[in-house]
Prior knowledge:
By secondary structure, this protein is an alpha+beta fold. The protein has five domains: 4-58 and 480-504 and 637-744, Rossmann fold (3-Layer(aba) Sandwich); 70-168, 2-Layer Sandwich (Alpha-Beta Plaits); 182-288 and 401-469 and 754-809, no CATH class; 313-384, Calcium-transporting ATPase, cytoplasmic transduction domain A; 508-634, Calcium-transporting ATPase, cytoplasmic domain N (3-Layer(aba) Sandwich), CATH 3.40.1110. The protein has 26 helices and 30 strands. A seven-stranded mixed β-sheet has the order 18-30-29-28-19-26-27, sandwiched between helices. Strands 10-9-11-17-12-15 form a six-stranded antiparallel β-sheet, with no helix packed on it. The protein has a six-stranded antiparallel β-sheet with strand order 20-25-24-23-22-21, with helices on both faces. The protein is elongated and about 115 Å long. This is P-type Zn(2+) transporter. Its main location: membrane. Belongs to the cation transport ATPase (P-type) (TC 3.A.3) family. Type IB subfamily. Residues 294-395 form the P-type ATPase A domain. Residues 98-162 form the HMA domain.
Amino acid sequence: MPNPSDQARRAAPEAVCDHAYGPQDKTHDHGAQARREGHGHDHDHEHDHPHEHSHDAASGGHSHDHSHAHDAVACCGDPASLTPPAVAPVTGAPQARFRIDQMDCPTEERLIRDQLERQPGVDTLYFNLLKRELTVVFGAKTSEADVTRHSDVVAATLRKLGMTPVPLTDDAANVAPPASGKGDVARLVAGGVLAAASEAAVWSGVPEHSPWVGAIVLAAIALCGLPTLKKGWIALRHFTMNIHFLMSLAVIGALAIGQWPEAAMVIVLFAISEKLEAASLTRARRAVEALMRLAPDQASVEQPDGSWADQPVAGLTVGMRVRARPGERVAIDGVIEQGSSALNQASITGESVPVDKTVGDEVFAGSINESGLIVYRTSVAPGDTTLARIVRIVETAQQQRSPTQRFVDKFSRIYTPVVVLCALLVAIVPPLAFGLAWTPWIYKALVMLVIACPCALVISTPVTVVSGLTAAARAGILIKGGAFLESGRLIRAVALDKTGTLTRGEPHLTDVVPLGDSPEASEASESSRNEVLTLAAALDAQTTHPIARAVVDGYQAANLGPLPAVTDFEALPGMGVKGRIGQTLYYLGNHRLIESLGVCNARVEAELTRLEAQARTAIVLASETQALAVLAVADTLREESREALVRLTQMGIRTVMLTGDNRATAQVIGEQAGVSDVRAEMLPEDKWQAITQLRAEFGHVGMVGDGINDAPALAAADVGFAMGLTGTDSALETADVTLMDDDLRKLPAFLALSRRAATVLKQNIAMALGIKAVFFALAVVGAASLWMAVFADVGASLLVIANGMRLLRTRTV
């Protein structure tokens, strides 16, 4: 298939923003394109950058176009296609949702898909195995009556497959109530006692084929084996070689050759193993469900008469006033209108220290109000909170299959048929070719059938990936899929945007230098500074660029009164802005603008050089005939940036800063942060080219940006990272990995988690295949029994689950 990233690298990037004042690091950067060409306004534009990048195996990459088609393999190796998103997209088409408690494995998914895809009216099926939910999308023109009729047919079909579908409504609880397992435990205990009794009876001298032994065996099979036998029959009818079919064949075969107690022990052990596996996987499932339970179901809402009353969060709408008392969790995203408090938002951003919030600050659903009473106005619908989006992304990511999982699935497709074929040959070749007894060789073949199920192998990867994704989400690192979790370990170079990534992205006015004053003067006159600041602020008030805001904020801090009116305002792409104040036309912009006007001189050059050497970004105010003043703004380095880059260097990662700012400013910031390589005065396409060059040099490369203006570079990188709080909406939607609290130390933490996940994956695959290989050899020489093979299969599955879930205990920043 075509590789979008390769296409992007071959074609000139379209996602290039032509800013009024020159190239920018981000939508809120203020760099220079060439020497001192970095200040620009007019950022009221929209970005439409595709974020598709699929790095194929040939390039050593991975697929991450965010709309994957996933070829899954069911437990024990039967293929099943997992629908790309875990949550059905919101469309105008009518839908029906069901919770199916029996659906937690691709085996069930394939059975359901085979039956429902042919049903009339069914357009698309979306499976969420994590939540055991099925969404059936019908044709867009399906009437309400037909939707009801089709839904009834779907439910009836699911019941025929031995499943119990529970219809869900749009306001149904996100987390399915846990099913009681007391009856199952009692049944398994009783079956286990009976199976052990049959074995003990034979060992004590009772004939193996006596009526008493036969009755005990049948009772054990009836208690523990009927669900397996039923699923095996369903698999046979659908030509699916899954674990239930293989186990059913082994049990029936054992009964046929007279190994009655062993048949009972095999079915009981298998039933116990399924229960244990389900319990282990439920722990991983609940780790994600716990994220959604962080937000309360009820909220204290202001009523029309001014009183307060609790009401369901699901019924809230945008614009309502909600309060959170000390000790309570914030119910929904909003903006504080009254009060102040310290909020613990670790569940959202991973920040370990509570954050002080006051009027005008944003609050997130799930945060804990630690001290004061706050009243906030809701800003989103209940289903669109940052927490809800995080959960949806994590669930979708868990459905997407990593490169290792795809390899394991492909391997298991070959492994199971090959082992079954070997078992068949073991059963018939020795008796037919050499005249040996049938029973011993059939027994060996049955043992091999049990070994043929690669349950431990197939489950080893998803449980590890799910645990890694969940651990990252808990720490405020949002990963879009297992492919990115695995790719992180391969990264050898990281490119970083400057503004908002290494720095805070909050520039402030530092210098106002009127050029009419004598260069020897120690200080500019107060009146001259105020005059040029007023002119610059009047022009900057017409746009929303961060540097413009810094100039306007500086003017307001000086309390110089109302700004004069500006007419004939115009943005000058790549240079700056112009506008008429009174009868005079003024210009405000970068070095290129001043040179184009022909008013640049030695004094301007000297001031620009001086200011840029102090890591400040300078702009020039001019009329049509002369330069009037030089103004400068500065951004501050994040405290954690240097620590993060030190960690990256210690991990053997090359760090490169890509910025549109002037070279002198970039060099100072780079030295402060400890960046290995500083590249300045870069347009978006220059960053894109830098990423392609880094990929050629280092192989796998990460890019840290805001997910919008850096889209060409992000698309060219193997993994794109976004800083969450500076652009949460865009970051959550476009980046491969989002650092939710803008703490750059989470970048090396992600890479460390990726490396640890890769180690666990290798351990799991080695354990699963090693145990199978040992028992395959034992089966061939006749040293393994059926119950030993089942026990080994159970043990291997539990080992890989437990090992994979160790990632849930991973500590990050």
